[in-house]
# Entry
Amino acid sequence: MHTVATPSLSLGQRLTAFSHLCKPRVNSLIVFTAMIGMCLATPDFPPLLRFTVASLGIALVSFAAAALNCLVERTVDAKMARTSWRATARGDISPLETVTLATALGAAGLWLLHSYINDLTMWLTLATFVGYTVIYTLILKPATPMNIVIGGASGAMPPLLGWTAMTGQVSAEPLVLFLIIFLWTPPHFWALACYRRDDYARSGLPMLPVTHGIAFTCQHILWYTVMLAAASLIPVSLGMSGTFYLIAISLLDLVFLGYAIALCRNYSDGLARRTFRYSILYLTLLFAALFADRLIVF
Ligand code: HEM
Ligand SMILES: CC(C)=CCC/C(C)=C/CC/C(C)=C/COP(=O)(O)OP(=O)(O)O
# Structure
């Protein structure tokens, strides 16, 4: 655990440390889902400039949200092996620096969306930012083991943001994409929380495997995976996607259900870790399949 500030870092080292706080790997998948939302919203490929500016705007606000999450949770992060290396937890960069850089990124993102995309997307992105930093991080996460069920709504917004960025309106299709990520998030996070339960117990955060045990959490992972599998078929019934997506998602769902059932029957930390990794592959391939299916139609 590193709670004591290390000797001061150079500006370049502090900027690098800040960039890690922006959770670039998580946010690359978040922005990918927004990009697919943009592609699905337009009958042809979206205009390249609009696509690039909208993606950048959403990415900048997501980076700001992630950095502020690290700032708010710096004391908790310092207690967990997974997060104690973060610059905010170590004291390598100050709260003022983090707030300043995050505000600059977030403001730039919102300005891009307001100036070049549309105000609906700008407001929805701001609401997503508030949902993650205030509702999830500050209120729900320390208060209830079901934090992720409601808090996951912010992570589910990006495809809808991508959609509104291209069309200026909300319709059934992006709401289905929202629903898919919303139902995917609890199995994604709970699988990790299971094999990281000692970390969470040390942190004092009321995570489901700590408060209600592994068996209860795995049952919930299974229920959410069943609901996710059902929701993942809606794009086919709405006519958004065709046979290619149907085949791909059926295989992806079978494997995810297999992991969830195996966790319930014969839990091990290794299996929970593999389930967590698979959840990321699942969501990536689901959105890739939605896009590929559209290409096949062209
Ligand atoms: C609020 C909802 C979410 C929670 C609580 C959550 C939780 C987490 C946690 C704790 C990790 C860290 C794993 C580690 O440090 O080893 C993680 C990793 C990851 N999450 Fe999520 N997640 C959420 C939503 C999402 C969403 C919406 C996406 C993408 C659309 C996503 C994609 C990823 C990816 C790609 C990683 C792997 C990052 C890496 O390899 O470093 N997550 N998630
Ligand atoms: C467009 C926009 C503003 C999007 C924001 C959405 C967003 C950043 C979702 C968060 C996904 C994420 C990093 C979860 C980590 O959970 P955690 O914070 O519980 O994990 P930790 O323990 O690693 O901090």
Observations:
- Residues 76 and 203 are 5 Å apart (CA to CA).
- Residues 23, 26, 30, 58, 61-62, 65-66, 69, 73, 83, 125, 128-129, 132, 154-155, 158 surround farnesyl diphosphate (ligand 2) (CB under 6 Å).
- The domain at 171-297 is CATH 1.20.120 (Four Helix Bundle (Hemerythrin (Met), subunit A)).
- Confidence is low (pLDDT under 50) at residues 1-5.
